[in-house]
Each structure stands twice: as C-alpha cells, then as structure tokens.
Design brief:
By secondary structure, the protein is mostly beta strands. It has one domain: Porin. It is built from two helices and 15 strands. The strands form two sheets. An eight-stranded antiparallel barrel has the order 1-4-5-8-9-11-12-15. InterPro entries: OMP/PagP_B-barrel, OMPW. Keywords: Signal. It comes from Mucilaginibacter ginsenosidivorans. It holds the Pfam family OmpW.
Length: about 230
Amino acid sequence: MKKLFLSALTLSFFFSLTCTAQDKGELDIRLRGVAVVPQESATIGVIGGNVSIDNSFIPELDFTYFFAKNLSAELILGTTRHSVSTVGSNLSAIGGPSSASVNLGKVWLLPPTLTLQYHLPTGTAFKPYLGAGVNYTIFYGVNNGPTVSKVSYKDKFAFAVQGGFDFDVSKKVFINVDVKKVFLSTDVTVNAANLTPAENPQLAPVLANIPAAVKINPWLLGVGVGYRFK
C-alpha cells in the first residue's frame, strides 16, 4: 500500500505541474481503450517450464503536455489484471506429471509510463508521433490461486517505446491511435511448500523458494478520443 500511495502522489504532482503550465503550451487529455498483450517468457527454477500470461483490455487515461512546438511529454494512467500460470513444468518430484501447468492465480499491474514524444509537422489533420521513455510497474492485489501458498512479484523499472497518431475532428477534439512496447521483466518467487509429499519432507525448503525470471514485454494497443486545451 505504501508503494501505491507514493506512486499516486507522484502522478498527482506531475498532473498538477502540467495543469499549472498549460497556459505556456498545449495540454491534451485522451481516454483510450487499450489491449494489453504480453509477449511472455520465463526461466523457472526447480520445476522448470515456461510462463503463460493472459491478455487484458482496459481503459486508460493519458495527459500530454507540449513544452515546444513538436515536442511533448506524455503520462499514461491505467491498471491491468492478468491470470498467470506455468506450462510444461516437471512435477514428478511431488508425484505429479513431468509436464504440467500450474495455476499461479492473478495479479494486478499498475504501470505508470512517462514518454517524450516528437510530433511530425504535417500541416494537416493527421498528426503522427514517435516516443520513448520509462515505465515503473507495481505489482499488487496478488491472488495466489488454488495451487501454491504464495506468489511474490518484484516491482521494476522498464524502457518503453511508442508510435501513433492523432486525427483532428475539430480544433479541440481528435481521434487517437497509439501503440506502445514496454520491455518489462520481473523476478517472481513461488512458495509451493504446501505441495511437499509427506514421505519426502526435505523438499519443503526447496519448494518454498522457487525462483523465476519472467519477461512480460507487453504490447499496448490503444484507440481513443482526445480533447485539446490551448
């Protein structure tokens, strides 16, 4: 909760700065529908296998402030929930199959992302842009699922790139299409000591600390509408 509070405080501070500065430049606000499509992979200790993370569709709010004619900073706000499982894991040590899926429940991600953008000067209603920046993802609201005792995720910084365009409907209103790629990895620890066979208690410490290096690397595919203040 402390991390969530600090993140919300930081985002509120950034928003207050852009609002007080909007008379010095243009401020755009967009509401998008975003498909979050992970490109996941993992190296999992002890039981091996890979990871599966489902897709999600979320609403997203973003603020873009122009500090020069063709240069802006964009902050996106949204949160997404995903189901997680292992695939192809070897559970023979605990009396299971040699290739199995393990349900690791669900987890919420809060991924505030700040990018710097260059807007190509087209002189038309079609306004394309490219951007790059930084993401900090907070994992919270973990549901451990029906199989293991606990799943822990480490919050991480990541690099993000984007491309998209605005298309003016009027001087104030525009349509937006945006694509982002976030190069996000995290360290996961799974506690499966509850699965220790009664006849093999020495496995308990091993199963209580199953490490996994997980690459999530999601695509964020968004379409929405925006309003321009200037």
